[in-house]
Specification:
Number of helices: 2
Helix content: 10-25%
CATH architecture: Beta Barrel
Order of helices and strands: HHEEEEEEEEE
Shape: globular
Structural class: mainly beta
Strand order of the largest sheet: 1-3-4-5-6-7-8-9
Largest sheet: 8 strands, antiparallel, barrel
CATH class: Mainly Beta
Number of strands: 9
Distance between the termini: 60 Å
Strand content: 35-45%
Radius of gyration: 19 Å
């Protein structure tokens, strides 16, 4: 009887063990950002600016989890690079996205709420979040030109 109780306690403890979010890649979360995302606006900053839409935006980010590459269209200028994703299973943040190369900063905290992707510069205390929605657009593959 004692060994059965001990087995039950061990199984409970093992099933409740919390992941620390240090796994190098969580495929489920990478799949969450795969695709093309259209920039729709920004918000945040020191003043706590509410979401501010950007009408007629032609800025996009496209992620390919298979080749670990991204395409960025900013102001009609195309740039390609590689990305990595560090999953974060301990909070509502999906994880940290590293884009190489990318202007301003190369790391972003990634949040996903319904159909809106939010990128916030990693380790910044006063910055703006950029908001994106999924798009059916598809751009050329940059895997051959990525780092």
């Amino acid at each position: 009887m004692k060994s059965l109780l001990l087995l039950a306690v061990c199984c409970t403890v093992l099933s409740c063990t919390k992941q620390d979010g240090t796994d190098p890649v969580d495929q489920t979360n990478i799949e969450d950002v795969t695709g093309t995302w259209m920039y729709i606006g920004y918000g945040g900053g020191l003043a706590g600016t509410p979401f501010t839409p950007v009408p007629n935006s032609d800025d996009y980010l496209q992620f390919d989890s298979t080749s670990k590459t991204f395409v960025a269209y900013n102001g009609g200028v195309k740039s390609c690079g590689a990305f990595s994703f560090q999953a974060d299973s301990s909070s509502y943040r999906l994880g940290v996205l590293t884009l190489d190369p990318f202007p301003l900063t190369d790391k972003y905290d990634v949040y996903l709420s319904h159909d809106t992707l939010s990128l916030y510069p990693h380790n910044f205390s006063d910055a703006f979040s950029s908001y994106y929605v999924i798009s059916s657009r598809h751009f050329d593959d940059c895997s051959k030109s990525a780092h």
